[in-house]
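FW: tagging you since you asked about this chain on Friday. Here's the raw sequence from the shared folder, copied in full. Didn't touch anything.
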Amino acid sequence: MTHGHAAGDRVLCDVANMLKQAVRAEDVVARIGGDEFAVLLRGVNDAALADIVQRIQALSATLEHGYGLAVGGAVGLAGDYLVDIVRLADARMYTVKRQQGRD
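HL: got it, structure written out here
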């Protein structure tokens, strides 16, 4: 079933606003294509990342459209390449999608 571009745009805006609520004001939330977003967090370790992922998952359950989000994250260290960090986060997101039966 399709709901049209306007409905899809509303879902994307809802997700973007929810992501902004889940992170700090100085963090960057960006749509990187289609229905995928990236959130750039400065000064976050693995434990803090896990807390943020849990917060995003909890907030996503409150969205009206009822779509589940697959969230993947990765922490980069000084000297790491951003492209490698994004690839790892993307791979983790696809692992979550498979676990949800949405591959």
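FW: The two ends are 19 Å apart (CA to CA).
HL: agreed, and The mean pLDDT is 87.
FW: great, closing this out.
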